[in-house]
Write a structure and sequence with these properties.
The complex is a heterodimer of chains A (44) and B (493). By secondary structure, chain A is mainly α. Helix content of chain A is 70%, strand content 0%. The radius of gyration of chain A is 17 Å and the shape is rod-shaped. Chain B contains 21 helices and no strands. At the A-B interface, helix 1 of A face helix 5, helix 9 and helix 12 of B.
Amino acid sequence: MGGPFGFSWGTFAALLVVAGTVLLAIVWAIVTARRDNDGGGGDE
Amino acid sequence: MTGEVAMSNMAVYTTVLAAYIVVLVAMGIWMGRRTRNAEDFYIGGRQIGPWVTAFSFVAAYFSSVVIIGGGAFGYKYGMSTLWVAASNVLIGCTLAWIVLGRRLWEFTKRLDTMTIPGFIGKRYGSREAEIFSAVIIFVFMIVYNVSVLVGMGRIMEGLMGIPYTTAVIVAGLIILIYVSIGGYLAVVWTGFVQAWIMLFGLFLLAFAALARVGGLTAANIQLAAIDPGLVTTPGVWGLNGLLSYALIVSLGVWGMPQLLVRFYSMKSTRVLRLGVVLATLGGAMAILPYMTGAIGRVLLPALENPDLAIPKLAQLVLNPWGGAIFMAGVMAAGMSTFASVLIIVSGAITRDLRGNQEERQGRKRSAQSDKRDVMVGRVASLAAGLVSLAIAYRPPGLVLVITAFAWAVIASACLWPVVLGVYWKRANRTGVLSSMIAGTVVSLGWMIAGKPFGIHGFIPGVVVSLVVLMVVSLMTSPPDPALISRAWGEGEV
């Protein structure tokens, strides 16, 4: 008990993992786009 | 059941479903006209963009089994099942795309292959490994498809009140028509549309259920009043059960050919950038069935069969139009998965088991043999679908158990040969064949032995498969350098 919306903190952490994963995907996409632009990657 | 559904509701369900089916069949026929050769039929001519790749991935990943079965798990075990959803998003979507996407696209292109058994055969230079993986995929994908069909039959039976057998036959035949005509192009484009219907249906049910229960905090307070273990982790489920299930339906993706095919059908590796973000956002919807199932425990506390939690909840909180859209969403989830699996089974028969004399002689396939492959592929997908339909007509029982069983065996055989195949040059043909046989035997044996220690056969299967692949590869001679150079594209300009 004790977490937001009546969740336990252990269960609420699952929602934080989902939010963190969305951030990870965005960061990876940006880094990959920069790397491809610098190194001419991104095969066609 | 039939008497429970009012005629006016039935008319609404039938109208929505009929409109939906007409769209699917029309898409199948349209895509069939664009399918000219085997590459079009199996991987859409490697011309698929980020939106269609990402959302058809999500549609193929989350079948009716996840929506109905995931809701049942949420009902039974409460909010700790949100960890299954988190593992779906992190491991099953985002990391799968990041770790495997680019490499699989590059390797399958260099090795000129369009199926997972074909990739394994060419990467390791082993026709035996190709045939073994094709047989495993052929048998256990049909088993998986049976559970998908049963899930669709149950939702139509539950919401529309039509007999289960009629529901299964109608759903199965529609998919067979558009897959055998339209091939992979029909599968990805219908999958794209189906993903949106599925997402919309799930959001609709989740919001209606939340509104009925008084919000998320109220739902958790009422769940804790039933049993405090329903809002804690691992809670009433226990760590072994939660961990086993979360790993099967997330790490298992890395060895599932119907999902991996999305990576090598992309038109370029640039698709990965936007695709990974879209697939992650779409994958995050995995939260909804588990959470909604848990809310169902508050609103419908006395259900004898947890599998009915989602259909009964839809009946309780949605009006007929909402219920019809939700049903179309569940049907969409099932149909897209069933269709994706049919194409993979068809490829396993046509490309991998049947083989090609020209390729065996080191020549490229001729246009004529390519055309023959498409025809055989259409017949093979029809035949595989009819076999699944025949088994689903009298379902062998526990749907989720069968699904996890099929995923466990396929992943135990294929996961590490694929992952190490694109990352570890030292992995060789003896190692891969030993690993596939050991993984299959251990996962099957573990499940037949009744899952000792409460651990699912998937975990010992993939662990043994990894250890055997590494140890046997290191103990035997390295792969042919020419084969490795070709796979890794070394010496290319």
